[in-house]
Specification:
The complex is a heterodimer of chains A (192) and B (112). With 192 residues, chain A is an all-alpha fold. Chain A has helices spanning 8-35, 37-44, 50-55, 59-73, 83-123, 129-181. The chains are: A mainly alpha (192), B mainly alpha (112).
Chain lengths: 192, 112
């Protein structure tokens, strides 16, 4: 994310370019590709409850986990980091692991819901379309909280990683300023 | 269970708002630090230009700035001019100050 910080106006341009590159390729592109499933389900496939169908499986949780891990690892090499910064990195890593675990849990629950729905449908001797619709809607509505949670986690992960990027940039700037303002070494005895 | 997930979602979103506010604050600080770095660079570039001045006091000011700010790239760029001052300046103060900067540059080379 942040490799080096040049000085002057070039520094601003470099940082902005780095930010846009990172944001575009590592964050926005995968996010857009994942989110595109929603309009695809809704507008093209005309599936009802496209939001729930798109996000309930929790794919966004994997994305969030990767983004958080990346944000936590990036800039770890920087020297003299504060305890708060180290703690934030550690928490980000733990959150990433927790999100992966919750992905597994959500996936499992969604599969159970789908399985339950199939079993319920197969237990009905004569399928009535209205009844199928009702059962399916009930099952999908049960998955709505998972979709909301996945989306919220993805949004916050993106925000966190943007914050981590700027924190790293500022940390590098602080190092640069300290180096620039550093008093020179002991003066030698010079002869006039 | 659903209530718990919704509560978690709201908490996560609140955290997101806090992070967003921190981003605004952080970008402002980044801009300020960048301006600091820029002003230091401008000052150093001015110091290098002062070395060409016909006025000895101005040269000394330039050398003093170069000796107090630790920017290897600009110091090295100015090194031939400083060496020239050591060799050809008739003012002992200028020679002293120039020698000091050369000494600092040499220390820098050793430490790196």
């Amino acid at each position: 994310m942040v490799n080096s910080l040049r000085t002057g106006t070039q520094g601003i341009d470099d940082t902005q370019r780095q930010f846009l590159n990172w944001m575009g390729w590592k964050v926005l592109l995968p996010l857009i590709l994942l989110v595109l499933i929603w309009p695809l389900y809704g507008s093209m496939l005309h599936l009802p409850h496209s939001f729930i169908r798109a996000f309930a499986p929790g794919d966004l949780l994997i994305f969030s986990s990767l983004i958080l891990m990346e944000a936590a690892i990036e800039g770890e090499h920087l020297p003299h980091q504060s305890f708060a910064s180290l703690l934030a990195r550690m928490l980000a890593k733990i959150s990433a692991i927790v999100f992966i675990a919750s992905y597994v849990a959500i996936r499992y629950t969604v599969v159970l819901h789908e399985n339950g729905l199939l079993r319920e449908l197969s237990s009905i001797p004569q399928l009535d379309p209205a009844q199928v619709e009702k059962l399916s809607e009930m099952s999908l509505n049960n998955m709505l909280p998972y979709s909301c949670f996945s989306c919220a986690v993805a949004v916050v992960s993106v925000i966190f990683s943007v914050l981590a990027f700027w924190k790293n940039v500022r940390f590098e700037q602080t190092i640069t300023i300290k180096r620039l303002k550093q008093e020179s070494d002991p003066q030698p005895e010079v002869t006039g | 269970m659903h209530f718990l997930i919704y509560t978690l979602t709201i908490l996560v979103l609140c955290l997101g708002l806090v992070f967003a506010w921190m981003i605004v604050r952080e970008t402002r600080k980044v801009r300020e630090s960048q301006e600091d770095i820029l002003s230091i660079h401008t000052e150093l570039e001015r110091a290098v230009k002062l070395l060409d001045s016909p006025n000895d006091s101005q040269i000394i000011v330039g050398l003093q700035i170069l000796s107090t700010m630790n920017e290897p790239e600009i110091r090295l760029k100015a090194l031939p001019k400083i060496a020239d001052l050591v060799a050809h300046s008739k003012n002992p103060k200028v020679v002293d100050q120039a020698q000091l900067v050369i000494h600092q540059v040499s220390l820098l080379g050793r430490s790196s």
